[in-house]
From TrEMBL:
<keyword id="KW-0238">DNA-binding</keyword>
<dbReference type="InterPro" id="IPR001647">
    <property type="entry name" value="HTH_TetR"/>
</dbReference>
<dbReference type="InterPro" id="IPR036271">
    <property type="entry name" value="Tet_transcr_reg_TetR-rel_C_sf"/>
</dbReference>
<feature type="DNA-binding region" description="H-T-H motif">
    <location>
        <begin position="35"/>
        <end position="54"/>
    </location>
</feature>
<feature type="domain" description="HTH tetR-type">
    <location>
        <begin position="12"/>
        <end position="72"/>
    </location>
</feature>
<protein>
    <submittedName>
        <fullName>TetR/AcrR family transcriptional regulator</fullName>
    </submittedName>
</protein>
<dbReference type="InterPro" id="IPR023772">
    <property type="entry name" value="DNA-bd_HTH_TetR-type_CS"/>
</dbReference>
<dbReference type="InterPro" id="IPR009057">
    <property type="entry name" value="Homeodomain-like_sf"/>
</dbReference>
<dbReference type="InterPro" id="IPR039536">
    <property type="entry name" value="TetR_C_Proteobacteria"/>
</dbReference>
<dbReference type="GO" id="GO:0000976">
    <property type="term" value="F:transcription cis-regulatory region binding"/>
</dbReference>
<keyword id="KW-0804">Transcription</keyword>
<keyword id="KW-0805">Transcription regulation</keyword>
<dbReference type="Pfam" id="PF14246">
    <property type="entry name" value="TetR_C_7"/>
</dbReference>
<dbReference type="GO" id="GO:0003700">
    <property type="term" value="F:DNA-binding transcription factor activity"/>
</dbReference>
<dbReference type="InterPro" id="IPR050109">
    <property type="entry name" value="HTH-type_TetR-like_transc_reg"/>
</dbReference>
<dbReference type="Pfam" id="PF00440">
    <property type="entry name" value="TetR_N"/>
</dbReference>
Length: 204
């Protein structure tokens, strides 16, 4: 039994090594300058092994972005609770979002994705398709709170997008597009509290 499981475990370890190597290479060199050869060398596997797991560099990059997006779309991480104050729940959700936005991998790969999409319409289409397939945890939460009658949001997806914009306008786009430094813990706290207050003032 152990013998038959070994190849699967080895395959999983190699796949994880490839993904980790790709993240490092994309962050360091960008999408265009990163090659499957470099990824294979960094992962310590053959180029053929890389292609056995991922048919192209684009497919590998999309897999990485999809994994990052999954961290922000897990509705089970911060589910809506009918018996808890809206403010406290939403503040927790926004703080989780801010934590994700400040992860080095997320910020660096977001820059890579934006630049790569400008040069590759096909990659841009694949990334947009991913966005369409996932419902963010924030949207899920707003939809549930509206269905429970505790939010006046006739279009929960639009309301959640407005909340996302409040957060990203201070804690994502200035850092990604204009090279501003990441927010301090105190600044993130202020952004979260003000965004939640503004959202609930309108929809609460």
């Amino acid at each position: 039994m152990a013998r038959s499981d070994a190849p699967t475990r080895l395959t999983d370890r190699k796949r994880a090594a490839i993904v980790d190597a790709a993240v490092a290479e994309f962050r360091a060199a960008g999408f265009e300058a990163t090659s499957m050869d470099r990824i294979a060398a960094t992962a310590g596997v053959s180029k053929r092994t890389v292609y056995n797991h991922f048919p192209s560099k684009e497919a590998l990059f999309v897999h990485i972005v999809d994994d990052l997006m999954a961290r922000g779309s897990d509705e089970h991480a911060t589910p809506y609770r009918a018996d808890a104050p809206l403010h406290d729940q939403l503040l927790e959700l926004v703080q989780r979002k801010l934590h994700l936005l400040h992860e080095p991998d997320f910020a660096d790969l977001a820059r890579v994705a934006i630049v790569a999409s400008l040069h590759s319409p096909d990659l841009a289409r694949q990334l947009m398709a991913l966005l369409g397939q996932r419902e963010h945890a924030m949207t899920t939460w707003v939809r549930a709170a509206a269905a429970d009658g505790r939010l006046k949001a006739h279009d929960p997806a639009f309301a959640a997008q407005q909340l996302e914009s409040l957060v990203k306008g201070a804690a994502f786009w200035p850092q990604i597009a204009m090279g501003q430094p990441p927010l301090t813990a105190a600044q993130r706290k202020a952004v979260a509290e003000s965004a939640v207050a503004m959202f609930l003032a309108h929809y609460g």
